[in-house]
Design goal:
The protein has 328 residues and is of the alpha/beta class. It has 2 domains: 162 residues, D-Maltodextrin-Binding Protein, domain 2 (3-Layer(aba) Sandwich); 95 residues, D-Maltodextrin-Binding Protein, domain 2. The chain is built from 11 helices and 11 strands. Strand 6, helix 6 and strand 7 form a beta-alpha-beta unit.
Length: 328
């Protein structure tokens, strides 16, 4: 080694140290800067349903908390599967969130043969937002006033009546299948690209009934008649409406909603979103609006939601089997 090389060795070492320090500083600044551009919430259903309503309720306060615009993007198709397939291909940088549901992330793995995503490993759970029990609704002009009316009519004319859903594996689909089994009737399933379009056809009289999670607005507006709620007790927002059990056909059905990120999203991004979303759920305005939807408000840590999602995937295997819904 020459004298010149010996003299330059400390400079090379210091240059390497400086480079590493600079890279670390850049990384820290990038993390500290999050977010510095708009955030997108992917709703894998058409506009108008409960999932869409929840996303649009969260977007303004989340935008205020994060200091950047928050945009809701609907990507409907195949009972929420299409939008979820597209979501898992997004960058894990915290700028694309998924409004995950029990339909897409718990039921679909047992109903859809070619799912296109891993329900555990392709997601980074952030927070469970809420759960909403399903409510049997019919158009206000329907002759049916009680659950017994529906059961009697369906037994008299098998396959003559239809129920709509947000798509294969949607909570309305599973609730309808449960109802068929519990009541021992044969009604036909009509899947849509989201509960919004299904509700529109219900209002227009193109289908006969839905067991939905997002119909309270139409009920309050006098457009739909609630027949029964698929919960263990009556809803505070619908105190005069009996449970399915009270109406003579025992069954329970509900849907849950949460926020996830793509797999391998940095933990500090997950924690930031979890903290802000928990604050939003605790706010009086958002909490009341969710309650007005018939929801039980959630919250908690990301790890709690991860455990819940894993348990729900296992539980829904039995739910799907008991419902009699076919794998498609």
């Amino acid at each position: 080694m020459t004298d010149l090389n010996r003299a330059l060795r400390p400079l090379y070492k210091n240059r390497r140290l400086f480079t590493l320090a600079a890279l670390g500083l850049v990384s820290s600044l990038a993390t500290a800067a999050y977010p510095d551009k708009p955030i997108k919430i992917v709703v894998p259903w058409a506009p108008g349903g409960a999932t869409d309503q929840i996303a649009r309720l969260l977007a303004p306060p989340l935008s205020q908390a994060m200091g950047v615009p928050v945009i809701v993007e609907n990507k409907a198709g195949a009972g929420g599967v299409v939008g979820t397939q597209l979501f898992v291909k997004e960058r894990a940088d915290g700028y694309t969130l998924l409004l995950a549901t029990s339909s897409t992330n718990a039921a679909a793995p047992h109903l859809v043969a070619k799912l296109g995503f891993d329900p555990i490993n392709d997601f980074t759970p952030v927070l469970q937002l809420c759960s909403i029990p399903n409510v049997m609704v019919v158009p206000v002009k329907s002759p049916w006033k009680t659950l017994k009316d529906i059961v009697d009519a369906a037994k008299k004319s098998p396959t003559a009546y239809t129920y709509g859903s947000a798509g294969i594996g949607g909570s309305q689909h599973l609730a309808g299948a449960q109802f068929k089994t519990a009541a021992k009737i044969d009604i036909r399933h009509v899947p849509y690209k989201g509960s919004g379009p299904a509700a529109q056809d219900l209002l227009a009289g193109h289908i006969d009934m839905m067991i939905d999670t997002g119909s309270l607005g139409s009920i309050r507006g006098g457009l739909l008649r609630p027949i029964a709620v698929a919960s263990s007790k009556r809803l505070g927002v619908l105190p005069a409406v009996p449970t399915f059990e009270e109406a003579g056909t025992p069954m329970l059905a509900s849907a849950w909603y949460g926020i996830t990120l793509p797999r391998e999203t940095p933990s500090d991004v997950v924690q930031r979103l979890n903290t802000e979303l928990n604050k939003i759920l605790r706010s009086a305005e958002v909490r009341q609006k969710l309650i007005d939807m018939g929801a039980e408000v959630g919250g908690g840590s990301a790890s709690e939601f991860a455990g819940f999602m894993a348990a729900e995937i296992k539980r829904y295997e039995g739910v799907v089997k008991d419902s009699g819904a076919p794998r498609e």
